[in-house]
Specification:
The complex is a heterodimer of chains A (about 325) and B (about 300). Chain A has 14 helices and no strands. Chain A has one domain (about 85-325): Orthogonal Bundle (MetI-like fold), CATH 1.10.3720.10. The longest helix of chain A has about 30 residues, at about 35-65. Chain A is mainly alpha-helical and about 325 residues long. Chain B is mainly α and about 300 residues long. Chain B folds into two domains: about 10-65, no CATH class; about 75-305, MetI-like fold. Helices cover about 75% and strands about 0% of the residues of chain B. Chain B has a two-stranded antiparallel ribbon with strand order 1-2. Chain B is flat and about 80 Å long. The two termini of chain B are about 50 Å apart. The chains are: A mainly alpha (about 325), B mainly alpha (about 300). Chain A: It comes from Halocatena pleomorpha.
């Protein structure tokens, strides 16, 4: 399907028009398939360059320079920013990694948040997907109810959990304080706030997991279940031997997406009023470095460290578990 | 089960029930299934119920608010628009979501068509480059874009215009955030259209672009609709750039984020209005989810499984 000669009919079709448009169409028609592909990708990559590649390159360039309040770029220092941040020599607004204050260091907080939310979201999402995979009366309603939290704006998600856990109106803080789970002012305490933010994320994002896993479930060939049934497999055996292996790729992809998302968490921390000083995630660290200390270059370096951590995590994951699906 | 001592009526009944459950497990599964359904419904819907309780509770009763409303103060749903022009923030969000959706649809359709239907050297690397954009935290895009939109970057002596507080400062970062997913979903949709249809059109004598417009685009309409719904929801949900690129005044195109945040930061005692504002803010996406649930399900699944 590469360089086909223009057929007579096509010529007559373009021939009906005249002038530059017709000759442009003629020219496009004569392009080979790769040329045509690059022509169409032109505007796409032009826009992506402006909104994504240029900002990223520019941020990276900034991270190779010293902080400067007067000039757009300070003195060129190479990877010095990275070295000083990673060795802990550069004092950030919150430490990147400090085992003496685990819940104040960005990597520990982000890692805890990511692992706990992804594990619970996978389990709950799996359950929701199994429910949605069956047909029963009222399934449309149940499906809307399960998807709805995923569509709730982050700022409202934060507000909901603020209204539940703020001691002046929330019903949830008093009993949990008596059980010793939450502190007196839960949204000013790092451990309590992290717990609240985790619960809020599980509430909103399990549905996303459920939808991705549901896709895997629905692509399983129903005949396989019949075969297994005839062969005398119990319900549990059918699930364990047929369903699980077949939908594992879908689950792994869902986990991958959620991991990337969870490691970038920012809005929920602000919107739940816990705040970046109480729950300092990696994204929080970038924004706070930027806005409260105006150290643009340091913030840029932290942003790239975050991206590299995500990239490394994702690569390890892809290599170990998800090779066949990527 | 401690049914070994059947000395009462009750344990006898339990024993019978257990025996039946063992020999006819279908019944037990049915019960478990409905328990699970109601558990999930309770978990997902309870927070909305709580917003409702807070919203209809009069201010003087907020200190003792319980799990059921003590009074119904419906005026909250009117006051919420009077204290802060909340409807203007919602309108800004909706317009920004429509704008981003239009840009994303045009660009991602082109890219999806090329990646899904054409063979060319560099196809896979280019697709991976698009995916890699989504590894970066939004913060990595922020500083250069902010300086550009504030008019602080000059090229060949011409400095960029100051477009902060206009849609021009919000649409580009929104586009960058949601373009990768849109491209992946549309790549899948375009790839699923059988080659035969396009070939038939070409043999009939249609030009390449003619085949694209008359065959491929109509057939990919469901995919395009899905991407439109997802992009709209994502932009309406967005926090990072909505929060950092605008001043918080509705006249400056500040979206929903500030409509809600204004209550949390300026009117810190008006919890009932916070609840009312949150419920109203969810309404547009709730309606969208109710009408477009199939699209959402098929879109998320297509985009994910392609990768």
């Amino acid at each position: 399907m590469s360089t086909e000669p223009t057929s007579p009919d096509a010529a007559s079709e373009t021939g009906r028009r005249s002038g530059p448009i017709a000759s442009l169409l003629q020219w496009i028609e004569g392009l080979s398939e790769p040329q045509f592909a690059y022509l169409l990708l032109g505007p796409v990559f032009l826009i992506l360059s402006f909104v994504a590649f240029w900002p990223l390159a520019s941020t990276f360039e900034m991270s190779l320079h010293a902080n400067s309040l007067t000039e757009p770029l300070g003195e060129f220092v190479g990877l010095d920013q990275y070295v000083r941040i990673l060795t802990g020599e550069k004092v950030l607004i919150r430490p990147l990694f400090d085992l003496d204050y685990p819940l104040q260091s960005a990597i520990v907080v982000t890692f805890l948040f990511t692992v706990v939310t992804v594990v619970f979201e996978t389990i709950i999402g799996f359950g929701q997907a199994l429910v949605l995979d069956r047909s029963f009366r009222g399934r449309r309603f149940v499906r809307v109810a399960i998807i709805l939290p995923w569509a709730v704006p982050i700022v409202i998600q934060g507000m909901i959990f603020y209204l539940m856990f703020d001691p002046s109106v929330g019903f949830a803080s008093q009993p949990l304080q008596q059980l010793g789970i939450l502190a007196d002012q839960p949204l000013n305490d790092s451990a309590s706030s992290l717990l609240i933010v985790i619960v809020a994320d599980i509430w909103k994002t399990s549905a996303f997991m459920a939808l991705l896993i549901l896709a895997g479930l629905q692509s399983v060939d129903r005949d396989l279940y019949d075969v297994a049934k005839v062969a005398g497999a119990s319900r549990w055996q059918r699930f364990r031997q047929v369903t699980l292996p077949l939908i594992l790729p879908a689950v792994l992809v869902a986990v991958l997406f959620r991991t990337i998302g969870a490691m970038r968490v920012y809005g929920l921390v602000v919107a739940s009023d816990a705040g970046c000083s109480t729950v300092p995630t990696l994204s929080c660290l970038v924004v706070e470095t930027l806005l409260s200390t105006n150290q643009y270059a340091t913030a840029a370096a932290v942003a790239f460290i975050t991206a590299v951590i995500i990239g490394v995590f994702v690569s390890i994951y892809i290599v170990r578990y998800a090779q066949e699906v990527v | 089960m401690s049914t070994s001592t059947p000395d009462t009526e009750d344990s006898g009944r339990i024993e019978r029930w257990v025996t039946r459950a063992i020999y006819r497990p279908e019944r037990l599964y049915r019960v478990l299934f409905y328990v699970a359904v109601f558990g999930f419904l309770f978990g997902t819907l309870f927070p909305f119920y709580w917003l409702f309780v807070i919203a209809v509770t009069p201010r003087e009763l907020l200190g003792t608010v319980g799990l059921t409303p003590q009074a119904f103060h419906w005026q909250s749903f009117v006051e919420v628009f009077e204290v802060v022009p909340f409807h203007m923030y919602v309108a800004n969000s909706i317009m920004l979501a429509f704008g981003t959706t239009a840009i994303v649809l045009v660009v991602a359709s082109l890219a999806g068509y090329v990646f899904g239907r054409l063979e060319f050297p560099g196809r896979r690397p280019l697709l991976l480059v698009v995916l890699a954009i989504s590894y970066f935290p939004p913060a990595a895009f922020f500083v250069p874009l902010y300086r550009l939109f504030a008019g602080n970057i000059s090229l060949f002596g011409i400095s960029s215009p100051n477009v902060l507080n206009t849609p021009a400062a919000l649409l580009p970062p929104f586009t960058a955030l949601f373009m990768p997913l849109a491209i992946f979903i549309l790549t899948t949709f375009y790839a699923q259209i059988p080659d035969g249809l396009e070939d038939a059109a070409r043999i009939e004598g249609t030009t390449r672009l003619g085949a694209l417009v008359r065959v491929i685009i109509p057939l990919s309409a469901p995919g395009v609709a899905t991407v439109a719904v997802l992009t709209f929801i994502y932009v309406y949900n967005e926090f990072f750039f909505s929060f950092l690129m605008t001043t918080g005044e509705y006249t400056d195109w500040s979206p929903l984020v500030y409509g809600i945040r204004n209550y949390q930061t300026q009117y810190t005692q008006l919890y009932n209005l916070m609840g009312a504002a949150s419920l109203i803010g969810v309404l547009p996406v709730a309606i969208l989810v109710a009408f477009a649930q199939e699209k959402i399900v098929s879109g998320l699944t297509a985009g994910a499984l392609k990768e």
